[in-house]
Amino acid sequence: MTKPEIRNATLLVRESLFKRYENLTVLSIFASFVVIVVVVQLITTGGSRFPTFISPVNIVNILQQVAVPGIVAISMTMVMVSGGIDLSVGMLASLVSIIVALGISQWHLGVGSSVLLGVTSAIVLETAMGFIISRTRIEPFIITLGGMISFQGIALLLSNSREVVMKGELDFLTTNLVEGARDPVTGLILRVPPYVVAFFVIALIGGLLLTYTKYGRRIYAVGTNPRAAFLAGIDVRTMRLSVYMIQGLLVGIGATMLLARINTGIITLGQGLEIDTIAMVVIGGTALSGGKGNIVGTLIGVFFLGSIANAMNLLRLPSEVQFLAKGLVVIIAVSAGDVSSQISDFRGLRREQAKARVAAAAAKKGGPQDQGGVHADRQDGSGVKS
Question: Most exposed of 9, 99, 117, 304 (fewest Cβ within 10 Å)?
Answer without folding.
Answer: 9
